[in-house]
Amino acid sequence: MEEIDDFSFFCDLLDRILSEGVQQVEVVGEGGAIEAEYSWRVSWPVLILCLSGTQSLVLRRGGQTVEKQRSAGQGFVLMPGCWMGTNPRRAHETLQVQFKPEVTNFLHQSFEGGHDALRGFPESTDRRFYSSPGRLDAFGYELHRFLLHPPLISAEHYARSLYVALFCKAREVLVVTPPGSKAHQTWQSARQFIEAHCEEPLSRHGVARALKLHPNYLSQLFAQQGEESFSAFLLRVRLERARHLLHDPALNVTEVARLSGFSDANYFIRAFKKRYAITPGRARHMAAPRAIDN
Questions:
Q1: What are the φ/ψ torsions at residue 259 (nearest 5 degrees)?
Q2: Do the beta carbons of residue 192 and residue 202 sit within 8 Å?
Q3: Domain total in the chain
Q4: CB atoms within 10 A of CB 69
Q5: What is the pLDDT of residue 257?
Q6: 114 — pLDDT class (breaks 50, 70, 90)
Q7: Of 31, 128, 152, 204, which has fewest CB within 10 angstroms of its CB?
Q8: Are residues 97 and 168 in the same domain?
């Protein structure tokens, strides 16, 4: 049987979700950084829905780190500014929709459980990724904002209804036709995937496997479609993430390095200084945004 392409896969998946509905949803607002081996700061509206199994998320609430579990049909709405970590020890299947300002990313993941699936892309983890040039419109952002202020009566039903409405908007933006050649579209998808997961220990082979490409073809795309190699683009994205995180006084330089995808803090400091002509610590203490925003 011929494998379904990623676009068709997400169309069918969203249609199924809209047909079956959801059971429960929780809104996660802004909070401090969490002490987790793997965590990331949400910078745009994100929908997460557990499709099967049991998903475990680590969240920051009221100054404390709490672990939340969700089963099939239950999900989260993550607000910009919140921190999230995940625990792949239990088998589960999830859908994540990221409403970024310039594109909308769709990520489907299946973890078999019982291993540290966050260290790279293990063979037992199935991932599908699709990046659409469609963007959430003003009405969609209003739906997202309304979730922060549910009514006192029927709050749960209200949240579920808005959650499903946001999945309807996701279905709309999914079908927006991207411009350019197929190779250019694939290159853009690779860029979006790296930007969305730069805090993970990414590799050329891992990204290629996630996008179902040959590693050599992935390198060829970066050489032909852009002005940076795969490794140069990955490094730049990680340094830009670090530059942003340095504005958070709750994080020290080592934590900034880890949350930006650098396993070696010393290498991070050298790379940061080479790009911005200033060390991360010095840039922070100068308290001058222009020192690290160029």
A1: -75, -10
A2: no
A3: 2
A4: 13
A5: 93
A6: low
A7: 152
A8: yes
